[in-house]
Amino acid sequence: MATASIEIRLAAISATFHHERRGDITAVRNLDLVVKPAEFLTLLGSSGCGKTTTLRMIAGFQKPSSGRIWFGGEDVTELAANQRDIGFVFQNYALFPHLSVFENVAYGLRVKRQDATLIESSVEAGLRQVGLQGMADRMINELSGGQQQRVALARAIAIKPRVLLFDEPLSNLDAQLRVLMRSEIVRLQKELAITTIYVTHDQEEAMAISDRIAIMDEGLIAQIGTAEELYQRPASRFVAGFLGSANLLRGTVIATGAGKTAIDILGHRWELSGDSPVTAGRQVDAVVRPEALTLAKQGSGLSGVVQRRTYFGDKAEYIVRVGEVAIQAIQWNPSLEDEFGAGQQVSLRLPSSNVQLLPA
Amino acid sequence: MAASVHSTAHGLIRPEPWLRAGGLLAIWLLLLILIVYPLLMLLSRAFFDDGQLSLQALLAAVTAAKNLRALGNSLLLAMMVGVAGTLVGLLFAFTVERVSGARRFSRLIDFFTFLPLISPPFTTSIAFVFSFGPRGLITYDLLGIKGVQVYGLTSTFAAETLTYFPIAYLALRPMLASISTGFEEAAFSLGGSRWHAFRTVTLPLVIPALANAFLLLFGCSLADFATPLILAGSDFSVLPTEAYLQITGMFDLKSGAILSLLLLVPAGLVFFAQERLVAGRSYVTVTGKAAVSAQHDSVSTAAGLALLGFCILMSALILYFYLLLFYASIVLAFGANHTLTLEHYRVIFSEGLPAIKDTLIIALVGMPLGGLYGIVVGYLVGRTTFMGRKAMELVSMLNYALPGTIVGIAYLLAFNDKPLALTGTATILIACYVFRYSPIGIRTTIALLQQIDRSMEEASQSLGASHLVTFRRVMLPLILPAFFAGLGVVFIRSMTAISATIFLVSINWTLITVKILENMTEVALGPAAAFSVFVIVVVVFVTSMLNVLLKRLTAPSLRVGRIGA
């Protein structure tokens, strides 16, 4: 695009609401965030974490109770939504039911009083970009949910906004369509190179779609990073548990240093690469992903008893009891030979690298 | 390319506060002057004598045998009309929604049920006299009965049932459509008979709607003034006519006020019962597709034919009445001299012309005012928050909920003398119609706004539109159907309603409906029929035009049903 992509910066943004019975509620607390030019950033969190409120403040639908919002070098905090030059895609599409597909996409251009022939070519191009060529004359109620979301997308990008904002846009679509639409959204975003913020509660969607993910909890960003960073190196127990599933194994550091750590875990000595965040003698929580564990009939790992086995075809999921602790393990591509039934004695082999240690 | 427009900084701009404050103030002022003040005048006239609280007149009125009889008659009539009208309405609704093949007739049935709703109030009564009166087509010409007595409870009851059952039909039909036939099929598959399925499944589900329809009709009959005035006769007096006669015959404003208040007691009870019914019940709306799949065997073929036959017979009866009315307007003297003539039309367009002109002016001026008032109040109540929002909604509904007789007498008391001597002016007639019938526009606006998500406004803003542009390009088109509904109702009622405005007409400003009444009392049946035909033609024409306009202006997904229905 002709315009250079811009950076979005939130500086100490807060949102406080007044509730009749519950008093003041703070949905977002002193949040700082920098979205790089042309980046696709996702705000991920469960409902009530403040992600939608943050997005609505960036859009200008809601005024922050404190803090500033910057689009590039411009402070937009006091600007109304209609002066921020944003493209917003709503969860319920929010298409204008009294207008045709064409007129919906053209709406922003008409408001800007663009030349009619220019509008026509822009709308055609926009509809082509979302795969809706030939649908311009349809009314909104004649479209499927997926088509409606494509119109909403075309309408948002038609005004060539500086910023694209998505509020759970795919949550009303069925699973297959969701997968299709998210790859199209990524393709379009890369093509247009518009700085984008996307809100969702679906972690798989977030991982599939984003350059970086900000996991939010109670009005704050718990951690921000690429999907790999968040999954491999969760900074907190919350993040470890929120993204994928994780076993949190508590142990005591025996020795650490020079890129190696030894931990006493459930009476077993476990050696792994990497330094411990705490010194010898202190407790740590090791974040161990279920698929990093290997089950064997016997071996040098943790010995335990299979409590339950669930077969999914592509994987088998085990709950293994080691002493008082229940540990989840996943075997990918399970073969019939190494199957373990409930009640069977097994040895759990712990990974020797790629384990995140958190101070207990 | 887009980043250049952002040099000016603006705060979050809300719609100009002074504009809204001014609008609110103006509406409250109108509500106080045109709704609250007249009602207070009515109450003070009934309860006070020379500034002293005095219940003597009230007690005397309440204990007078004549008045008690009128009250009893009113209640009896309303009860009968409520039951019979609901039953006929249910049969019609059930036939259209459940009898296979009946859907083909549904447009026809809709038309015949639409006619009584848009006709002047005397239409059915006049046709009744033509048909069953002393020189009636059926009683005299066909059966040869002489000296027949048409006036009384039976004819009033029959005429009102015929006039008001379409209201029950309109209330019950969507209800039946929304009940999935799957329920009936489930009961049927469990071994119940069709009648059993209807009795144990369908009927219990429509009982709230039935009760609602009954209350609607009860209220209509209770407030009906025109039908009993023509058909009830002197032996069967009801409250609205009794109050009218007190005021116009005896010039006794106080007794009239007290009598109209007697009417308020049952009317108020009905109103609150209805509010409770609507608030307390969650109406079963099952799947949206139910109406389409309703073609199946809910009833046996024989029962279906019987139901269809009944509906066709009733429709034929309505058609017969309207044809009779038309026929009476083009013969010299119905019942005596059946020579074809346009004399009656010449009369109404010469001597009757002032009334026609007045009525059309009042209806055409009131129509846009009412439509506008409806969406403005509806928007304020439905989309904004301010102190006294609930109070405004309630007050704006008052004149609509009260029987016309009460409203008319209240207006007469309030606007007969200074400081607001407006009785007999076009202003007060228009105000009466606008504030009495715009609540339908208000309710439609509120209902439409509830369906429009706030994200619609936000989407428009995010695309660069200001609040004003958003209102004009998004909100206004979306609430346009409510505006048209408001226009239609105010126009139809301005052409046809009489119960309130009969107290407000004068030599300078009069109404077609009042002329019809005069003609009837002078036994000038021809002009009365011609006037009625004229009103029906004008109303059908104008509502059709409004419907065409509405269809052109709005998307198919937004229609809220036909105007006038």
Strands, helices and their partners?
The complex is a heterodimer of chains A (360) and B (565).
Chain A (H helix, E strand, L loop, with lengths): L7 E12 L3 E13 L4 E5 L6 H9 L6 E6 L2 E2 L10 E4 L11 H11 L4 H14 L15 H14 L4 E5 L7 H18 L2 E6 L2 H7 L2 E6 L2 E6 L1 H6 L4 H6 L4 E11 L2 E6 L2 E6 L9 E6 L5 E3 L5 E10 L3 E8 L2 E8 L12 E5 L6 E4 L1
Parallel strand pairs in A: 3-8, 3-9, 6-7, 7-8
Antiparallel strand pairs in A: 1-2, 1-4, 4-5, 9-10, 11-12, 11-14, 12-13, 14-20, 15-19, 16-17, 16-19, 17-18
Helix pairs in contact in A: 2-3, 2-4, 3-4
Chain B lengths: L16 H31 E2 L2 E2 L2 H8 L1 H34 L7 H13 L4 H10 L4 H6 L10 H26 L2 H9 L4 H30 L2 H6 L7 H12 L2 H28 L20 H29 L1 E3 L3 E4 L2 H8 L2 H31 L5 H13 L2 H12 L10 H12 L1 H13 L2 H9 L4 H30 L15 H10 L3 H29 L12
Antiparallel strand pairs in B: 1-2, 3-4
Helix pairs in contact in B: 1-12, 1-16, 1-17, 2-12, 3-7, 3-9, 3-13, 4-7, 4-13, 5-13, 7-9, 8-9, 9-12, 11-12, 12-17, 13-23, 14-23, 15-16, 15-18, 15-19, 15-21, 18-21, 19-21, 20-21, 21-23, 22-23
Explain the overall architecture:
The complex is a heterodimer of chains A (360) and B (565). Chain A is an alpha+beta fold. Chain A has two domains: 234 residues, Rossmann fold; 115 residues, Nucleic acid-binding proteins (OB fold (Dihydrolipoamide Acetyltransferase, E2P)), CATH 2.40.50. Helices cover 24% and strands 37% of the residues of chain A. In chain A, the strands form four sheets. In chain A, strands 6-7-8-3-9-10 form a six-stranded mixed sheet, with helices on both faces. A five-stranded antiparallel sheet of chain A has the order 13-12-11-14-20. In chain A, strands 15-19-16-17-18 form a five-stranded antiparallel sheet, with no helix packed on it. Chain A is elongated. With 565 residues, chain B is mostly helical. Chain B folds into two domains: 248 residues, MetI-like fold; 277 residues, MetI-like fold. Chain B contains 23 helices and four strands. In chain B, the strands form two sheets. In chain B, strands 1-2 form a two-stranded antiparallel sheet. Chain B starts with 16 loop residues before the first helix and ends in a 12-residue tail after the last helix. The N terminus and C terminus of chain B are likely disordered. Chains A and B meet through strand 6 and helix 2 of A and helix 20 and helix 21 of B.
